[in-house]
From TrEMBL, chain A:
Full protein name: Mitochondrial import inner membrane translocase subunit
The species this protein was found in: Drosophila suzukii
GO biological process: protein insertion into mitochondrial inner membrane; protein transport
Transport recorded as keyword: yes
UniProt subunit comment: Heterohexamer.
GO (cellular component) term, any one: mitochondrial inner membrane
Parts forming coiled coils: none
From TrEMBL, chain B:
Protein name: Mitochondrial import inner membrane translocase subunit
Organism name: Drosophila gunungcola (fruit fly)
Family statement drawn from the similarity comment of this UniProt entry: Belongs to the small Tim family.
Subunit-structure text: Heterohexamer.
GO MF terms held by the record: metal ion binding
Single GO cellular component term: mitochondrial inner membrane
GO biological process, alphabetically ordered: protein transport
Domain Tim10-like: 16-78
Amino acid sequence: MAAANMEKGELMSQVKQQIALANAQEMLSKMTEKCFKKCIQKPGKSLDTTEQKCISQCMDRFMDAWNLVSRTYGNRLQREQYRTMDTVELGN
Amino acid sequence: MSEFENLSGNDKELQEFLMIEKQKAQVNAQIHEFNEICWEKCIGKPSTKLDHATETCLSNCVDRFIDTSLLITQRFAQMLQKRGGGDL
């Protein structure tokens, strides 16, 4: 019993870890794509200091935007849920 | 997740856990998609902070995208109905 329970707990934390990893990878790849597009107009022999500065600012803004989008979507999901609940109540 | 369903077939707790994690992952994927779309619409040159106008643009962008998606879904269903069936 104890072994089975541990296995389950382990499976759960592995699932969580894998999801977190996939999320970070998605974030990283989108961030790279978007910030390359914004900051590297004409690729030169190396990343110059302006480009590097732009990239680090872009990464910070990308996180800001992501968090704001996440909050807005969360609020919307909640509103839609209440609306559905109202509709169901009216229907009864 | 179907391989998990077999694994968790008789385990309510595990089933529920996986369902919730799946939902969270779907919400997360949706946020990535919205963020990508609205980043393109709203962000000019990255600066030291998101200004107020950009913040407003981002949050309007998410809500209007969802509105658009709902509207199109609804109209599309009507289009299908008018054609008298599911055939395109």
